[in-house]
Amino acid sequence: MVLAEAVVFWIIVAILLRRDFGAIARLTFKGGWLLAVGVAGLFVVQALVVLYVPGQSVVQLAALTLSQLALLGLVILNRHLPGAILFASGMVLNITVMLANGGWMPITPELYYFIHPERVVALEARPPSSKGIVLPREDTALWVLSDIVPIVLPWRRTAVSIGDLLLVAATGQFVFHATGRKRAPAAIATTAAHGEGTPTAEVPADHGVGSA
What are the φ/ψ torsions at residue 198 (nearest 5 degrees)? Predict the structure, then answer.
C-alpha cells in the first residue's frame, strides 16, 4: 500500500515539474505485456487469498511467495530500466526476511499497536488484511529487515521495512529518469528557425579549379 501511495506521489511531483511521460513509451520492455499481465494476475490472486481470507494456510503462503518471486524475475529481466536494480534489491530484502519468518513479514506487537491501537492481535497471529505476522523482536529472524520504520501520514499510520524504502526510492528513480523535461513550444520553434540540432555537411574549399 505504501508503494502505491509513493507512486502517486512521484507522479504528482513529476507533473508539477513538467516531466514528459511520453518518454516512458519509448523504453524497451523485455518479456512482453503478456508476461506483465500474468504477474499482475498473480498479485490479484494473492490479494484474494491473502488479504481477504483469514489464517495462514499453505495456499496463502504459496500465492504470496510465487507472486513476489515472479515480480522479482520480471524486474531482473528488465534490469536495464531506471530504478530496476534498486527495486530488485528491495524485493530481495523483503523476500529474505519473509522466508526467514515462515513466509510472512514480521512486525513487533509494540509497533503494531502504534499503527492500530484499537485492535488486539495475539502473538504469532496474522492481522486482518495483512501480509504480516506479529512477532516479538527476540523471536524475529533478521529483525532489522522487518517492518521496523514507523511512518505517520496525514490519513493513517503504517510501518515499512528497509526493503520498502528501497522500493519507494526505486519508483522515484524510474519516474524521473524514464521521463524527460518537457521543452517549451517557443524554445522548440526558435531551435527549428535557427536550424539548431540539424547536422550540416562541411564542404571543403576547392583549390583545384583552373589548375593545370
Answer: -100, 120
With respect to residue 206, please indicate whether it lies within any of the assigned structural domains.
no
Q: Model's pTM, two decimal places?
A: 0.82
Q: What is the C-alpha separation between 27 and 81, in angstroms, rounded? A: 8
Run of H or E residues at 5: helix 2-16
The phi-psi region of residue 38 (left if phi > 0; otherwise alpha if psi is between -120 and 50; otherwise beta) is alpha
Query: Which residues, in sequence order, are bridge partners of residue 158?
Result: 151
* pLDDT above 90 coverage of the chain, percent: 63
**Mean of pLDDT over the chain:** 86
SS3 of 117, please?
coil
Read out DSSP for 29-92? -SSHHHHHHHHHHHHHHHIIIIISS-S--HHHHHHHHHHHHHHHHHHHHTTTSTTHHHHHHHHH
- Cell 534489491: give the residue: 89
In total, how many domains does the chain have? 1
In a domain, 8, yes or no: no
196 occurs within a structural domain: no
Roughly what angle, to the nearest 10 degrees, separates helices 84-100 and 58-77? 160
92 and 168 Cβ atoms separated by less than 8 Å: no
